[in-house]
Amino acid sequence: MQLSCFGWISCLALLGLWTSNAQECGQSPLQSRIVGGYDATEGEWPWQVDIQTIVGHVCGGTIIAENWVLSAAHCFPNPSDTSQYIIYVGRLQLNGWNPYETSHKIKRVVVPYGYTDPQLGQDIALVELKSPVTWSDHVQPVCLPNADVSFPGGMLCTITGWGDIRDGISLQGVGTLQQVQVPIIDQAACQEMFHIQASEQVNIRYDMLCAGFQEGGKDSCQGDSGGPLLCQTSSGTWLQAGIVSFGLGCAQPNRPGVYARVSAFSNFITSHVQGLQLRGAADHNWTSWLIILTRTVIALTMAQLLR
């Protein structure tokens, strides 16, 4: 068989398109504490990151692009000074061996103008990395929802993190990433819960989202801050509905966890993370079909060139 110079060049170009690093978000290729949770498995949550300082683990976060991580503003009390922070991706255990792990320094942290306290809202941080992550089965981006996406009360979603397993009791042993399912609580019901035997006033604002059980028992806790509240769509894609923000204690009755509502910050996110595509309410994973179609066309074209 002979192939012209033009044919070889065309094949190489098409192969480059095939192997490009455009990454589909919200997919967990290997998928098969948190209070009341259980161990995650290797690669189950490939967007989860561990944010550490010289004192050790402080917060969680999620990969949203090659150079960007999503977390909470309160994880960075002084966002202009990031010299003491290091971010680990591809990590499962806090204190064990993580063969797929890489570490990254922070280039800058962006928080909303006027942010002061989690209970006053705007508890979101965009963290730009000095070096990009490398995509693999263990390192993937999560999908983020557009402003038109809502998560109804009662919808079961998942929290992941390395936080305390009870108030004041840290994750033990090798410190395997924890996960737990909790239902979304609508805003009015959540506000009512916080009014029951209220020792301090908590206002659930428009940019907040609640999740948990009225009876308590399962919740995020200290050390889970900045990590994700994840909801799976009917197509199997994971959307990050919330960012662990604050709570009154951990897993207490009538005190569900409060999360920064990611969809409320769509303009803030896209204005800083160039090229990031958010998922809309009518999005039925069309990008996956586009990738399949593109690869099919490439395969057919290559077959014709090689004839």
What can you tell me about this protein's structure?
With 307 residues, this protein is α+β, with helices and mostly antiparallel strands. 16% of the residues lie in helices and 25% in strands. The chain has four helices and 14 strands. The protein has helices at 5-18, 187-195, 266-272, 286-305; strands at 38-39, 48-53, 56-65, 68-71, 86-89, 102-104, 106-110, 125-129, 156-161, 178-185, 208-211, 228-232, 238-246, 257-261. The chain has a seven-stranded antiparallel sheet with strand order 6-5-2-3-4-8-7, with no helix packed on it. A hairpin with a 2-residue loop joins strand 2 (48-53) and strand 3. Helix 1 (5-18) runs antiparallel to helix 4 (286-305). The longest helix is centred in the last third of the chain and has 20 residues, at 286-305. The chain is globular, with a radius of gyration of 21 Å. Mean pLDDT is 86; it is low at 1-21 and 284-292.
Summarize this structure as a short list of keywords or feature phrases:
single chain, 307 residues, alpha+beta, seven-stranded antiparallel sheet, six-stranded antiparallel β-barrel, 4 helices, 16% helix, 25% strand
Summarize the helices and strands and which ones pair or pack.
Layout: H1 5-18, E1 38-39, E2 48-53, E3 56-65, E4 68-71, E5 86-89, E6 102-104, E7 106-110, E8 125-129, E9 156-161, E10 178-185, H2 187-195, E11 208-211, E12 228-232, E13 238-246, E14 257-261, H3 266-272, H4 286-305
Antiparallel strand pairs: 1-10, 2-3, 2-5, 3-4, 4-8, 5-6, 7-8, 9-10, 9-12, 10-11, 11-14, 12-13, 13-14
Helix pairs in contact: 1-4
